[in-house]
Amino acid sequence: MQFVIEFYRTRPADDAHALIGRQRAEAADLDNAIEIARQLSLTLDMPQRPDAVSVSDSAGRVLYSGAFPGEGSLP
Description:
Blueprint lengths: L1 E10 L4 E11 L3 H14 L8 E6 L4 E6 L8
Antiparallel strand pairs: 1-2, 1-3, 3-4
């Protein structure tokens, strides 16, 4: 299944989100896509380290959105 993973920096004061990276990935299911997102957050060359992620399906529906460890919890 094809997923779109987007990486964000967030600002708690006003809940602003800045998109800093986007990647398409092939994964067996949502749990696998979240694990791929975790790995990509450490290996992709992005201007800043992301503190949040969203995972969408190929139709654009957001299936998961959450914070990375240190800023919240990613399963």
